[in-house]
Amino acid sequence: MKGTSLLTACSDGVVRKFILNESLHGPRTIEVFTRLEEKENSQIKMNLAVRDSKVLSEPGSFEGQVQVCTDESGKSKAYIWKIASQQWELLGKVITESPKNVRNLERTDYVFDIDVQDGVPPLKLTFRSGQDPASVAEEWLQTNMLPFSYKEKIIEFLLQNVQEKDISFGKKESEILQPLQKTAAYIPTLSHVYFDKINFEGILAKLTEFGLNEEKKGILKGSSIWSSDVENKENAQVHAVITELLSMRVEYLFPTFDLIRKAILFPEYVTEIMKYDIELEGAFLRAINHPATTQNVLTAIRFANNCFRTEELLEKIIFSHVKRIFSCLASVADQPMKPALCISICTFIMNFSISILHGKIDKKENWSEIYILFLGVMLQLLRNTSAEDDGSKMRLIIALGNFVYDSSVRRKLVSLEIQEYVIKYKEQTSGLELQGAAEETLNEISKV
C-alpha cells in the first residue's frame, strides 16, 4: 500500500524494507540476513517482502524505487527504477543465508549517481539523514579528487533531491551556497594536496602485460603496503620486485610510479623506500627526460606531488632536480592537456609554492633562476588550461598567491600577462571560490 512501506537498496549492497504498520506484514514477509550477491560482507537483519515479478511490467513511482521479485527459478532479485530509460534495472541477486559475523553498518538513506566525465562510470554520492550538505559535498569532492569548484553544484543538487526533514544545516541555509560571505582566506594556503587513490588491480594487469610474472605479482599482492586485507610486513621481497620494475624500459615505468606514490604516504614505509632511492631517482629522471610520454609524466608528477609529504624525498627527488622537472613541465604545458594531466601539474605547482612560502627556495643559491622557471611554467599553464577546468585554475591562482605572499621581491617578478590571466579567470568564472582566491591574489600582488 502506497505510503506505508519503503524498500531501499543502498551502495553498501544491503536491501532494507521499512514498514510503518506491523499489521501489514504478509505471510510472504520473512526475516532473514540478506545481501546483494555483488557486495560481500554486507549483511543486516531486516524484514524483506518478496513480490511477484509482474510488478516489473508496471512503471515505477519515482526515480530509485526498488522492488525485490522472484524469477521463474524461485531466486530473489532486486531491481531499481530508472526514469531516464523508463526501465527496471537489475541491482543484483538477493541471497538468504544464516546469520554470520554481522557487522555494524553505517546507515545510508540516499544514494545518487553523479556523472563527472563523459565515458566514465558515474560516482556514488551518499547522504545520511541529519547530515550537512556542505560537509557531504566537501568530503565527497576530496575523496574523489575532484575540483573544489564543484562544491556549489553538489550542495544545490542535495538541497533539491534530499527531503528537507533529513537535512541538518551546519550553518544557515541562506549561507550554504555563499561561502564567500564568511571570512574566507585562500591566500596563503599551507596544506599540500596528495594523490592517494590507485587502481591496484589495474596496475598489476599492466605490469603483467609488461612482463611481470605471477610469482612477483603475488609478492606485491601479498604486501600490506597496497592490500589492507593482509598483514604481511616483510618487505625484503617487495624491495627486490620494485627495484626490478624501476629498471624496466622507460615506456614501461608509469605503473610503478603509481605503486610507489601510494606507498610513500605511509610514514613507516619511507625509510624502506630510501633503501632503493638511487634506483628510484634514476627511474624518475628517465621518465621525465625529453621526449617524455604523457603516461610517464602523469604518474611521475603525481609521485612527485606525494614526495612533498617527506623531507627525504622532497630533497632527493624535487629540490635536487628542480631545473629538469620544470623543463619537462614547460614542454608539456606548452600545449592543451587532458584534464587529469593538467590538474596533476597544477597541483605540483601549488605544492611547490608552499615550499617557496616556507622559505625553502630562498636558501638555494640559484633561487632567482628557480623563481623564473616557476613563473614560466605557470604562465604556460594559465594560457593552456581548459576554460571549464576551474579545479586546475584554482590551484594555479593559489600557487601564485602563495608565491607573492609577504614578499616584495617575488611580487616584482610577476609579469603583467600573468596578472591579466588572473583578472580574466576572476571575470569569467561563476565559481565563488575561484573568484575569492583570484581577488586575494591580486590584492597581494598590488601591495607595496
Describe the structure.
With 448 residues, the chain is an alpha+beta fold. The protein contains 18 helices and ten strands. The protein has helices at residues 133-143, 151-161, 173-176, 200-209, 214-221, 236-246, 254-263, 267-273, 277-288, 294-307, 311-318, 322-333, 339-357, 367-384, 390-404, 408-411, 416-428, 432-446, and strands at residues 5-9, 15-19, 29-36, 44-49, 51-52, 66-70, 76-82, 87-97, 110-114, 123-127. The chain has a six-stranded mixed sheet with strand order 4-3-8-7-6-5, with no helix packed on it. Strand 3 and strand 4 form a beta hairpin. Helix 7 runs parallel beside helix 10. The chain is globular. The termini are far apart. Mean pLDDT is 79; it is low at 24-48, 96-107 and 171-184.
Keywords:
single chain; 448 residues; alpha+beta; six-stranded mixed sheet; two-stranded antiparallel sheet; 10 strands; 45% helix; globular
Provide a count of the helices.
18
Largest sheet: 6 strands, mixed
Strand order, biggest sheet?
Answer: 4-3-8-7-6-5
Give helix % range: 40-55%
Query: What structural class do you assign from the helix and strand content?
Result: alpha+beta
Helix/strand layout:
Layout: E1 5-9, E2 15-19, E3 29-36, E4 44-49, E5 51-52, E6 66-70, E7 76-82, E8 87-97, E9 110-114, E10 123-127, H1 133-143, H2 151-161, H3 173-176, H4 200-209, H5 214-221, H6 236-246, H7 254-263, H8 267-273, H9 277-288, H10 294-307, H11 311-318, H12 322-333, H13 339-357, H14 367-384, H15 390-404, H16 408-411, H17 416-428, H18 432-446
Helix pairs in contact: 1-2, 4-7, 7-10, 10-13, 12-14, 13-15, 14-17, 15-18, 17-18
